[in-house]
Amino acid sequence: MDANACPWTHKLQHNTTRIDVMARSLSQNDVSVDDDENMTRIRAEVTRRIKNLGRQGKVKDAIKELANMARMGVQPDTLSATALVDACVKSNKIEMAENVFDELFGELLVPDEVAFMVLIRGYGDEYPPRWTSIATMLSTMEHTYGIVPTVLTFNTLLEVCSKTNDEERGVEIIDRMQDAGVVPNDMSFEAVRQRKSLRSMLKKLV
Questions:
Q1: Across the strands, what pairs with 109?
Q2: Which one of 19, 89, 99, 117 is least enclosed by Cβ atoms within 10 Å?
C-alpha cells in the first residue's frame, strides 16, 4: 500500500450498493486536525452522532459521519468503529455490519470484546440465530486476538438462547461459564429471566 494512501479508502458493499467510507487520502484532507485533544473531542462527538443515527435506523448517514471525520484527518478508533457496526445491526443490516467490521478491524484497528459482541448480537437476532457465524466470531476473538471471554460474552450468548427458547444450548453455555470460572452478574440473570431452569443453574455459580 502507498505510504501516503489513507487506510480507510476501501469501500463497504451491501448487496449492489457501495458506500464510500473514504473518498480521498489523508494527504488530501479538507481539514487537518493534528491536536490530540481536538481529535479525541471529534471522535467522541462523531461516535455520539453515529449512535443516535443508529437508533434512528439511518445507517447510511452514520457511515457518512465516519467518512467526514476521516476527511478531517481524524482516523476512527475502536469506539467509533464499534458504534458504526452497532448502527448497522440496529438497522437489521447484518451483511453491512459484517462488511464494516471486516473493513475497519483487523489490520487497521484492533477490536475488543464489545465490538465482537455487537456483531454476535446481530447474528443472534437473525431467525434462526446464526450459531455457526457466532462460533466463528468467538474463535476469531479468542485465537486471533487473544481476547478471553468475560461475563459479557456469556451474557450475550445466554440472551440469544433465552429469546429463542434454546435451553439445551443455554445449559451448555452455563457449563462453559462454570469451567471458565466466570461468575454471573445481574445482567446474566436478566438475560435468562424468563427461563427458570437457566436461572437456577446460574444461581449455583454465585
A1: 105
A2: 19
For residue 181, CA distances in Å to 43, 69, 206 come to: 36, 41, 10
Which element (helix H / strand E) includes 113? helix 113-125
**pTM of the shown model:** 0.84
Contacts of 98 (CB under 8 A, 6+ apart): 119
> Is-contact 134 54, C-beta < 8 A?
no
> One-letter amino acid identity for 147?
I
Of 99, 106, 157, give the one whose Cα is nearest residue 130: 157
Q: Which residue carries 486536525 as its cell? A: 33
Burial (CB < 10 A; 0-12, 13-18, 19+), residue 46, is buried
Q: Report which of 151, 92, 83 is spatially closest to residue 123, judged by C-alpha positions.
A: 92
Q: What is the pLDDT of residues 2-19, one digit of tens each?
A: 333 334 434 443 332 333
Q: What is the mean pLDDT of residues 155-174?
A: 97
